Amino acid sequence: MNWNIKQIFSSAAVAASLLFVGAADATTLSFVVTGDYSASWTMDSQPTPISAYDGNSFVLLMGGNYAYSPSYHAFITFRNDIWGGGLSIEGDSGYGFPLLLLNTYSPSPQLYSGTEGAPVFATGAYALTGYSKPNVYWGNFTLTISAVPEVETYAMLIAGLSVVGVAARRRKKPA
């Protein structure tokens, strides 16, 4: 089999790209609440709380989309299993005081691992029950936590498709 310079270079490029490919390490997560209330935000899988109450809960200030709140920011409290698990979301009422938008009740799953001072989130879907505003009513909610692909993932996909396209275009047709 005769190998020319282009084939050797192509093989080396493919081998080098395989060496640098690792498991996707998505540190940014997407949080989406659906059901009788809707909200969405993104955050790091290992956030730094603005308040942490060891053995109880922690609070994050997150930008996102929250139904019934004129603001794009909300305080989100995550509780551990001892305090019933789940979360609550407090938004801005538009009148200078907080408005409780969603509060889940026990038993709800604990949505994080680690400590309240250093929580770690993982992907998954969680069924929650509680009440929401503006009309206080009981409802069922689903919190879905999913990974947000990093820019490098898309760049690698485009590069790979380009290499395949060039190889297909340059392939000689049999006579």
TrEMBL record:
Q: Does the keyword Signal apply?
A: yes
Signal peptide feature range: 1-26
Q: Which domain of life is it from?
A: Bacteria
The protein's UniProt keywords, in alphabetical order, are: Signal
Whether Signal counts among this entry's keywords is: yes
Quote the protein name from its UniProt record: PEP-CTERM sorting domain-containing protein
Organism for this UniProt entry? Duganella levis
